Structure formats: structure tokens, C-alpha cells
Amino acid sequence: MSSISEQADRLAASEAREVSLYRVLPYFGLAVGALLATFAPVPRALPVAPTLAVTAAAGCWVAWFINLHPGWIRRRSLMAVYYVGLLAFAAVLVLASPWYAFFAWVGFLHAFLVLPGGWRIAGVAATALLVATAQGGGPPSSPAHWLLWSVLVLFNAGLASGVGWFSERQTTNRKQLIEALAEANRRLAETARENEGLHAQLLTQAREAGVLDERQRMAREIHDTLAQGLTGIITQLEAAEQSRDRSADWRRHVDNALALARGSLTEARRSVRALRPEPLETARLPDALAELTEGWSTINGVRGEMSTTGDPRPLHPEIEVTLLRAAQEALSNVARHAGAARVGLTLSYMADVVTLDVRDDGVGFDVAAQAGMPRRPDGGYGLTAMRQRVARVGGNLAVESEPGGGTALSATVPALYGGVE
């Protein structure tokens, strides 16, 4: 938009310079005519003093109408008076000295500047008579002189008309171009305003989407940390209540509940600050999963094994968090629902993907029936939370199970390597 405005300004400035040139040229013609009439007088010329007086009067006439009152150029009646006076001064000066043809020539320019329509032709013709008279050395006095004078009149009128028509055409084209540029500039300004509105709308939508995404993130983090931790604490306290008469078992369950509470509090704080889970801050993913499996096995009294295949490499932080959270959710589900005696985790590094498999020998369930069930009344997300988290990084979650046949869960995510060795 700025380039269009600049181009329009340049065109307007060019037109203004042309008008300014038309206002200066009369004085140049008067100065040249006066200088030559004074120092190179021609035969039969009028005396210098009255000629210079008329020259000064002609300059004042132009200054009054053109320079001192530039707004008058749009008033046709005043400009007609001005142009008649201009021709009168030019006629007197040409008769006084042919050198004033330089001033009379200005009549061609001002005819197109101040006269409307067909009056310009009359102005050009009258000016051509004056210029031809000056060029011929005065009024014609013989047949040959008349012939020369006629040729000069026709030549000057034709040349001035051609130049004037071309100049008028250029002026018209320039005005049309300026108007087109102004219209384009206006449309661009409207488009810019519309874009500002769209930009503001997009910012609002982006903020709303960001708020929604943050809410979903916090919901997942609360489920993966507080909800799972509180579930484990409740399980341990219930077990402690049942083993009240056995001091060693009671103390073990209470210590487990205390450890779960501390761990959950730590993870909750890290989730609020959008930090990576603590196990991934202090260990690589295979080690973090092995530590998670060992701790879960100790707390729940279920045999758990963790193995790794392929070449372990640091993954993108979001990928590692996704796999760790999937493992936590899977083990939590096993502890709450499976009644399993053995659980196995396998982390497989392949060329394009990384897969986490969790298998148990528990009671299993009907996958098709569970998929159509609404979310549990306790507010848990279960497999839905895992699917959302895995899908968020471009992966997919597959679950295989049947009543009495255990459960196999497989989370496959892209192998995006972005960590530090």
C-alpha cells in the first residue's frame, strides 16, 4: 500500500511541477525579450524605455492572476480576462520588438492551462499570429512577406496544437492514473482494516484454543499424577486398615502411601510449571520405565519386568513424556482392575517408530464393550486419556484383551530424536 501511495504522490508532485513551470516561464520570456530588445535592438523598434514599462506591466499582470491568486485558475471568467490581457500585452511587445516572441510563445502554454474546451483553439490561433509576426520581423508588407507569414502561422499553430494535444493527453492519463491509484489505495486500506479484524479474530481464537489446550493438558496431568497417586494412596490405606493387627504389614502400607503422596505432590508441582516428569530429568527413558516398574511392583505386590529392544536413543521430550505417562496409566489400570500376578513392559526402538508394550495375565475385559461405555463416574479417563495423549504426538494406541485372557496394550509413536546423548 505504501508503494501505491508513493507512486500517486510522485504523479501529483510531477503535475504540480508542471504547473509551477507554467507560472515561471512568462517571466523568463519577458526577461529574454527585454534583454535582447535593450542590447540588440532591431530596425523600426520602439524606444527602450516605454518598451520596458510595458514589459513590467505584463509581468505584473501575470503575477496578479497566476502567481498571487493561484485559486483563480479554476474560475473561467477571470481566466478569460487574464488571457485576453496576456495576448494584448504580447501584441504590444511584439510590435515594439520582435524579440518578445519569447514572451508571446507563452500564450500557447497558457491556452491549455487556463482556457476551456474550444476556446483553446482560438487562443492557440491568436498566439500563432503573434509569434509568426515576430518571427517575420513585423506585420506583413508584401506578397512574399504575406506568404512567409502565413506559413509561419500555420506551422506555429500546428506545432502548438500537436504539442498541446499530446500534453493534454498526458495530463488526462496522469489524472486517470492518480485516480486509479487512489482507488487502489482506498481498497488496500479497506483490505488492511479487514485483515486487522481477521487478525484480531485469529488472535482471539488462538487464545481460546491455547486456553482449551492448557485445560486439556492440566486435565491429563492431574489424571496422570494426582488421580493416580490418590488412587494408590487409598489402596495402600485400605490395605493398612485390613492389616491393622500385623504391625509390619501396616507400617509397609503406610510408608507406601506416604511415598505415593510425596511423589504425587512433586509431580503435581512439576505439572503446574509444565516441567518434564522428575524420572525423565534424572534418567533416560528405559531407566525411568525400569524404575517405575520396580516401584509399582513393590507397592502393589505384583511381579513386574521391564525390557528394552533396539538401540536406545534420547527422544524428543514430548515423546518420552507420552510413553512414560502411558506406562503409568497402564500400570495403574492393572493395579485397579486386572487382578494380575505378572506384568511385562517392553520398550522397542525401531527405525521410524518407538513402541511401548504392556502385557498382564489378569482378568481381561471386552474391548468392544468398553469402547462404547461412557466415562466412569469417578471422573477417570482411563484408555481415553492414553489415546488422546498418544494421538497428540502423532501416534496410536492399540488394546487387545478378552475376559479371562489378560490384556496387551501397545503405544506406537514416531521416533523423533531430539534429546541429548
UniProtKB/TrEMBL annotation:
<keyword id="KW-0408">Iron</keyword>
<dbReference type="GO" id="GO:0046983">
    <property type="term" value="F:protein dimerization activity"/>
</dbReference>
<dbReference type="GO" id="GO:0051539">
    <property type="term" value="F:4 iron, 4 sulfur cluster binding"/>
</dbReference>
<feature type="transmembrane region" description="Helical">
    <location>
        <begin position="80"/>
        <end position="102"/>
    </location>
</feature>
<feature type="domain" description="Histidine kinase">
    <location>
        <begin position="323"/>
        <end position="417"/>
    </location>
</feature>
<comment type="function">
    <text>Member of the two-component regulatory system NreB/NreC involved in the control of dissimilatory nitrate/nitrite reduction in response to oxygen. NreB functions as a direct oxygen sensor histidine kinase which is autophosphorylated, in the absence of oxygen, probably at the conserved histidine residue, and transfers its phosphate group probably to a conserved aspartate residue of NreC. NreB/NreC activates the expression of the nitrate (narGHJI) and nitrite (nir) reductase operons, as well as the putative nitrate transporter gene narT.</text>
</comment>
<keyword id="KW-0479">Metal-binding</keyword>
<dbReference type="InterPro" id="IPR003594">
    <property type="entry name" value="HATPase_dom"/>
</dbReference>
<dbReference type="InterPro" id="IPR004358">
    <property type="entry name" value="Sig_transdc_His_kin-like_C"/>
</dbReference>
<feature type="transmembrane region" description="Helical">
    <location>
        <begin position="21"/>
        <end position="42"/>
    </location>
</feature>
<feature type="transmembrane region" description="Helical">
    <location>
        <begin position="146"/>
        <end position="166"/>
    </location>
</feature>
<dbReference type="GO" id="GO:0016020">
    <property type="term" value="C:membrane"/>
</dbReference>
<dbReference type="GO" id="GO:0005737">
    <property type="term" value="C:cytoplasm"/>
</dbReference>
<feature type="coiled-coil region">
    <location>
        <begin position="167"/>
        <end position="201"/>
    </location>
</feature>
<keyword id="KW-0812">Transmembrane</keyword>
<keyword id="KW-0418">Kinase</keyword>
<feature type="transmembrane region" description="Helical">
    <location>
        <begin position="48"/>
        <end position="68"/>
    </location>
</feature>
<dbReference type="Pfam" id="PF02518">
    <property type="entry name" value="HATPase_c"/>
</dbReference>
<keyword id="KW-0411">Iron-sulfur</keyword>
<protein>
    <recommendedName>
        <fullName>Oxygen sensor histidine kinase NreB</fullName>
        <ecNumber>2.7.13.3</ecNumber>
    </recommendedName>
</protein>
<keyword id="KW-0902">Two-component regulatory system</keyword>
<dbReference type="InterPro" id="IPR050482">
    <property type="entry name" value="Sensor_HK_TwoCompSys"/>
</dbReference>
<dbReference type="Pfam" id="PF07730">
    <property type="entry name" value="HisKA_3"/>
</dbReference>
<dbReference type="InterPro" id="IPR036890">
    <property type="entry name" value="HATPase_C_sf"/>
</dbReference>
<keyword id="KW-0963">Cytoplasm</keyword>
<keyword id="KW-0472">Membrane</keyword>
<keyword id="KW-0808">Transferase</keyword>
<keyword id="KW-0175">Coiled coil</keyword>
<keyword id="KW-1133">Transmembrane helix</keyword>
<dbReference type="InterPro" id="IPR017205">
    <property type="entry name" value="Sig_transdc_His_kinase_ChrS"/>
</dbReference>
<dbReference type="GO" id="GO:0000155">
    <property type="term" value="F:phosphorelay sensor kinase activity"/>
</dbReference>
<keyword id="KW-0004">4Fe-4S</keyword>
<dbReference type="GO" id="GO:0046872">
    <property type="term" value="F:metal ion binding"/>
</dbReference>
<dbReference type="InterPro" id="IPR005467">
    <property type="entry name" value="His_kinase_dom"/>
</dbReference>
<dbReference type="InterPro" id="IPR011712">
    <property type="entry name" value="Sig_transdc_His_kin_sub3_dim/P"/>
</dbReference>
